[in-house]
Amino acid sequence: MTSNLSRIGFGLAPLVALLLLWQAASAAGLFPPQVLVAPADVVAALLAMWRNGELVAHLSISLTRLLIGFGLGAAAGLAFGTALALSRLAEALFGPLFQALRQVPVLAFLPMLVLLLGIEERFKIVVVAIAAFFPVALAAFDGVRGVPRSHFEVAKLYRTPLLPFLGRILLPAATPPVLTGLRIGLTRAWLVLIACELLAAGSGIGQMMEMARQLFRIDVVLAGVFVSGLIGFLLDRGVKLIERRTLRWKAA
Amino acid sequence: MNVTTLFDTPAAASPPIDGALTIAGLSKDFTVGGRSLPVLDGIDLVVRPGEFVSIVGPSGCGKSTLLRLVAGLDTDFAGEIRLDGKRITGTDLDRGLIFQDHRLFPWMTLEENVGLALLNSSIPKAQRARIVAEHIALLNLAGFEKAYPHQLSGGMAQRGAIARALVTEPKLLLLDEPLGALDALTRIHVQTELQRIWLRQRSTMLMVTHDVEEAVYLSDRVIIMGAKPGRIRRIVDIDLPHPRERSLPQLHRLRDEILAELIQPVPTPGEPENLVRLPVREAM
Ligand SMILES: Nc1ncnc2c1ncn2[C@@H]1O[C@H](COP(=O)(O)OP(=O)(O)OP(=O)(O)O)[C@@H](O)[C@H]1O
Ligand SMILES: [Mg+2]
């Protein structure tokens, strides 16, 4: 218990130091106050936006996009990766294309996607889906391919029926790498979504920051930085928690 | 009922249990790098119902391959394998196999692992939980039903694997170095348990082992295999009643004899071999 608390305290120490440094720098006037606003101003901006509902509105729009885009991309990735792992034909046919495309940074698709889809809602959802698709597909492929032959042999020996085989042997065996892939896909989707909103959007956390930048409201920009970082952190932690819950059978 | 008296009676007196294994002209090749590699060549063997037979032989001589063929995990071979007259064409719950590693699923508790073996059995669902609990208790694992494999010691996990293999009550149990991974003391414990269970269930046992002492202690017969390609070099009868005293001088003599045979250079093909054949007492 104490060690847990002290560990959290330890992790927070650099953050507190950074805040103090920041406060000191802005108090010393190293940069113009419009450029380097004080932490206190950022907190004030955050609180104001929270109270007038602006923050919640932008945030819920961004999270909705994330949810839909990630849901579509992850589902497609799971199906595609599993099919690729189970079928030699699918692997021979789509494997090389998949391996090549997954090397392309998602942001490199943006110019073409803007031309094809415009900058409306579906554009952002497609980009988020693409960002989620590749890590999840790769994890599903590796997860299912990585199921050791010995598992299949035990199932064969006891003539395990198909449904229990899929649900109680294949699925749990592939789950650890797949969960890691989902976690990476989710945080990557969030990053790419913020980037998209910064570039082209009428709403969302990223757009809120871009608007504020144009109005020289750096306090609001930094509030956006804080919020997007916090959300990314919470998403990562959330999936990690699910991982730990479902993988309790693993040796500590 | 004493199992040894059963063996001493001629087969004509219709043995009360089944589990007779007949292997005839069995050969197996693997293709490695485009070349065909003979692994087993002309194996003939008859194991009587309820008999405990051990196989010893140099590493790589095809012992595991032989067990996998009998289990039905690999059906690509020449020759014939029959259990109670029925040709083996695949896996079946009438044959159990214990691997060298326990192969329990790490995400299932012990009782789920053991219960898995019954998913496709004819035993009514209502009785399965009781049968699983009985077998867990039989291997002295009561109290660990809800434990995951990583919470068990190596010896306990291996006993769990034995419980899983026994729960379907196979007529023939195949054991591939089941105690190979255990320390000497645990090994002796589990050997004793294995013997107790065998005397109780009287199923036929075919066990591969590297431990000649273990082989002579547990078996009615010990098969010595030779390598390249794998074949039966010699069969040694251990004509002593069960359960046995470990310190029995006859056991030590037989162990030394088998060890000497194993160390001997492989006779060149064509040269007459010192084959000690069992008097023909085949069940069929
Ligand atoms: N799937 C396979 N493909 C190709 N060769 C194989 C395969 N399985 C086994 N072999 C070969 O068959 C031979 C016998 O292997 P096997 O595992 O049956 O030996 P073993 O007698 O059990 O050895 P050990 O005592 O070391 O366990 C070895 O030469 C091995 O290389
Ligand atoms: Mg082997």
From TrEMBL, chain A:
It is found in: Cell membrane. Keywords: Cell membrane, Membrane, Transmembrane, Transmembrane helix, Transport. The chain crosses the membrane at residues 36-53, 65-86, 98-118, 125-141, 161-182, 189-209, 215-235. It is a multi-pass membrane protein. Residues 55-243 form the ABC transmembrane type-1 domain. Belongs to the binding-protein-dependent transport system permease family. It comes from Allosphingosinicella deserti. GO terms for cellular component: plasma membrane. InterPro entries: MetI-like (IPR000515), MetI-like_sf (IPR035906). Pfam families: BPD_transp_1 (PF00528). Probably part of an ABC transporter complex. Probably responsible for the translocation of the substrate across the membrane. This is ABC transporter permease. The keyword Membrane applies. CDD domains: TM_PBP2. One of its GO terms (biological process) is alkanesulfonate transmembrane transport.
Automatic annotation (TrEMBL), chain B:
CDD domains: ABC_NrtD_SsuB_transporters (cd03293). Keywords: ATP-binding, Nucleotide-binding, Transport. Pfam families: ABC_tran (PF00005). Gene3D superfamilies: P-loop containing nucleotide triphosphate hydrolases. It comes from the Bacteria. Signal peptide: none annotated. Residues 21-254 form the ABC transporter domain. GO terms for molecular function: ATP binding; ATP hydrolysis activity. PROSITE patterns: ABC_TRANSPORTER_2 (PS50893). InterPro entries: AAA+_ATPase, ABC_transporter-like_ATP-bd, ABC_transporter_ATP-bind, P-loop_NTPase. Belongs to the ABC transporter superfamily. This is Sulfonate ABC transporter ATP-binding protein.
